[in-house]
Amino acid sequence: MAVYVFDVNETLSDLAPMRTRFAEVGLPPTAAQLWFTTLLRDGIGVAAAGGLVPFADAARGVLAPMLPGDPDAVEHVLAGFQELPVHPDVPGGIRALRAAGHRLATLSNGAAEVAVGLLGRAGIRDQFEALLSVEDAGVWKPARAAYLYAADRLGVRPADATLVAAHPWDIDGAARAGMRTAYVDRTGADYPSHLTPPDRTVASIAELG
Fold it and tell me: Mean pLDDT of all residues in the chain?
């Protein structure tokens, strides 16, 4: 029996529909990725300085200057984040892992409620024993304390849990905290050579089994 701890945003959730939301308010669809990358940068930067910013606050704070004077457009875009689907491989892959007897949890830089909604819409909320947020850990990933918090909540040593993520920086952080790692390669890009390599690389959740 393995213990898998899943990142949520982009690892399980498909952010592609956000491109449509950006287009609907007059921004280039490509701005969706810039927005998401920038809010991650800012949240991680605050964590490096010893602080904690809620994911929703970072998301709104980065988006507002992109839509100056149009709070309705900001809220329209942010509402799309609450309606995202999972990637097509996720439901079957998660059910297969659970059927094999593995323990499953999530650890997100976002609020736990977002994971509840995402997994509920996909019909797989019941496959996870815990949906964890860094808001309870007190610091964003990739800070060591976030991963140790997850291991502690699950009652295992870090070395006995595997962090599953589509972000190399998340893989690197988990590895430095002593966890095993599985990188979900959703882009086909080369893994950054300056970051700790994953223990495993898979193209889909189904390959974890």
Answer: 97
